[in-house]
User: What shape does this take?
Amino acid sequence: MAVVSVRGPLRKLTGGSAEHELEGETVIELLRGLESRHPAVGGWILDERGLIRRHINVFVNGERGAEQTTVRSGDRVEVLPAITGG
Amino acid sequence: MTELLIGTKKGLFVLEGEPGSGFEITTRAFAGEPVDYAMRDPRSGRLLATMTSPFYGPKIFHSDDAAGDWEQAEGVALPEGGDKALERIWVIASGEADGLLFAGGDPGVLFESHDGGANWEINAGLWDQPSRPQWQPGGGGLCLHSIATWPGHPDRLAVAVSAAGMWLSEDGGRSWRRGNEGLNPRYIPEEALQDENAGKCVHHVERAPKQPERLFMQFHGGVYRSDDAGSSWSPIGDGLPSDFGFPLMVDPADPDSAYVIPLVADMDRVTPDGRVRVYETRDGGSTWSPRGDGLPAENAYLTVLRQAFHRHGEGPKLELYFGATSGDVFGSGDAGATWSTVATRLPPVFSVFAVN
Assistant: This one.
């Protein structure tokens, strides 16, 4: 099990919980698992292409990750909006 | 009492008031988020707003109370597994059948709802156009921004895509054909004019409800009129200080009427001479008259976007409202004869929708 951490509107869309224990070997598998468990978050992190949205950053144990980044049991995956905007 | 729904870069503002007597902000929703367009379906009273979070992508929300909870609509997405993602929803329009709504977006996509906006599905006829891979986006993306329904005929539709031009349907959107004859994109090489996918940068289209085969268009350089339901177009921009601009409105009572807000040019998208004026025609575009009484007459270099001009009512009591990226909103309660300031210092205005 890895832990996926979300905040802001994503927390509300995932049942109000900031942390979610999920099975998966890659970031994309974890995020798909999160969508399966909480359908309301569908389309908010991943777009129709199955890509992490451009202004969302994913960190695995504090290092920048991407869709295919390998995840091991006990890893911590943080989903954060980028520092951007105007 | 008129209600104005103002979509801005930093949320939706709801204003209420009477033209000439002042408006008050009654509600702000989606604080901090860009609201590209908002409308109230006059049939159901339901509010619909489209918000494109820079982080979480474009969504449509609906509510019966702007100050209450907004619910996310379902189905507003491209087919999964493709090579494109939905970038933005530009417009939502009421259809001619019960519960029918349309939404247009980038990349050149039309959505339909048959339940008043809670659930949406992609219009496959337009999405599957064989020429789609050759469609070119305008500066604002490949945006489907204008949806012109035909009063009393749900099957007849015209939509405009920048820069893939006009698309017409007579079977409720199952099949589509182009409607670009006569349009002259002055900004592409002459040898490219025959390329039907090149540079059909339509900025806004409105239908004349009492003569539905008539449409007016603000083009990327040119104002046009069609008298054959959008199949072909004739230029009507002579007499304007500039034929470049974005929004366009009509008086529903008068099929010879149209209003535009000229900007200097595509390389200088501000009101000409620092003066804000709406131009009106009452003879189908043969002549144009400036309407600026009450609008800023000097040192005002405003940009008015394509969805930031709307109307309510008709005839002598036609109300007109437009907003600028400066955050100013102006209104007229007498068909443009006189104007007053409705709001100032809002965030940049993306859209205006008037209803009562």
